[in-house]
Amino acid sequence: MEKGKKQNNRTVGAAYEKRAGEYLKSQGYHILEYNYRCRMGEIDIVARKETYLVFVEVKYRRRDGQGHPAEAVTLAKQKKISKVAQFYCLTHGITEGVPCRFDVVSILGDATELIENAFEYRA
After folding, report:
1. What pLDDT digit, counting tens, does each position of 49-87 carry?
2. Are residues 100 and 53 in contact, defined by beta-carbon separation less than 8 angstroms?
């Protein structure tokens, strides 16, 4: 992939992550962090909703010709997100007693859909 195209994809991705963040705020989420990165990967949004620490994956498609955006959160992606979430908890002093979950925000064209508890932790 060309460097310019990769940078453009990041810019587009960041814009949709901000849009997802605004949507989540309207649903009662408190955004803690965008684009948490570590050597194992990245989580798009880390948030709190009530007692839950929520790790959010954002997926965008301009139209449904490539399938529904949420379908892109494959088992392999779930495992990677789970490992990054575990590292986040470890490095941020989050104890085992804090309930965590994995949500997906799917953006298809102008429609935004929140899938709460989209998947379980995957080892």
Report:
1. 999 999 999 998 877 666 778 888 889 999 999 999 999
2. yes
